[in-house]
Write the structure tokens for this entry.
Amino acid sequence: MSSVVGAAIPTFVPVTLPGKPTASARLSQAEARRQLGVHQNALSKLIDSGYLSLGEACVEAAARADFMSIESGRVVVIQTDVATVSAEDPSWRPYVGDGPGLTDAEWLDASRGDWHGFDPHQALAAGYALITLGSYVTGVIRLLQLELSRHDRYQIKHRFEAQIVARLTETTPGQPPLADPERSRHEVACGPGEHTLARLLGRRIRPKAGPQAYLWDPARPAAPMPHPTASAHEVAS
């Protein structure tokens, strides 16, 4: 299949999050969940993957990240998990999931498939996918063409040929990327006009229930979630 050329780059705007608390010196997991507005599953993903630590500076920086809404265009959003050894077909990718310690090649293969929940041709027309973990954008890939579609029980999953535009990596040893997303931003193949997408790294998108991947456009806004209390009503995943 031929690649889609000239896909419009979507535009985004920050979302004001009412009631966002100020960061505190406390670094218990309960306080980190309160500051970030996530439940334990999301916090564990961020820590286990290596994107976040419970250090004060890292939690404060991550708590300041804007939630984003999409203003124009379309983009695929992929809500992934912590990187693990692939239990599927390791001949084409050794890992599934997300982590800053993966090489670019490993991370790309883990991110470009196999996904369901959207029309692959609409995805190619959109041209890009945002990779997210625990509501944080950790990378952007450029979708070039559909590599294959396969049946998996009751679903049809899609795999794309793709390129990395930019991703978060651990550029400073011992410093998780969300402590300083600007410094941790690794622009792999960021072309003219794509810096808008690269600047999304370290920012946030409201998690969406359902399939891990979906097509996001202004008709399907990801509005900011209400901020949970320290002990209950935790809604971000």
